[in-house]
Amino acid sequence: MATTITKYTSYDQYVHDGTIDLDATNIYLALVTSSYTFSAAHTVWADASANEVANGDGYTTGGAQLTNTVDTAKWYAADIAWTGLTKTFRAGILYVNATVNSIVKPLIGYILFDSTPANISIAGGTFTVQWNVIGIVTF
């Protein structure tokens, strides 16, 4: 099961124009079902939110907030764990949980948890997203 992260096309623009400040912004990871069809052209959370897994059973709608840090070479965050999770999902979406520069909840990246691709089903367990030590994104 290989995991891949793909940046949305708008990500680089948002970082360069200051819309997204990776060090000072509330960034969230939300889980979405296989009903979401990834498009690099999607720009805001509303493009994907209708496909988010339902609230409850160990998951809170909107996802989990990252505890993130940026240094001169990379953006990294503490691992995220959902405990007592009973859900079936396909992917995760990183987004800014705020309106910045009049853009409502800009998208950052799409995480496909299983490159097959296949659904991930968790029944009352813990699902942990463990970020690579070299960073989520390197600059």
The whole-number mean of residue pLDDT values reads 91
Class by alpha and beta content: mainly beta
Q: Which regions are unreliable across 5 or more consecutive residues at pLDDT < 50?
A: none
Helix content: under 10%
**Strand count, sense and closure of the main sheet?**
5 strands, antiparallel
Provide the spatial order of strands within the biggest beta sheet: 1-10-7-2-3
How many individual helices? Answer: 1
Question: How far apart, in Å, are the first and last alpha carbons?
Answer: 26 Å
> Domains counted in the coordinates: how many?
1
Rg, Å, rounded? 14 Å
Oligomer: single chain
Q: SSE string, helix = H, strand = E?
A: EHEEEEEEEEEEE
Instruction: Please provide the count of β strands.
Output: 12
State the shape: globular
- Proportion of residues in β-strands: 35-45%
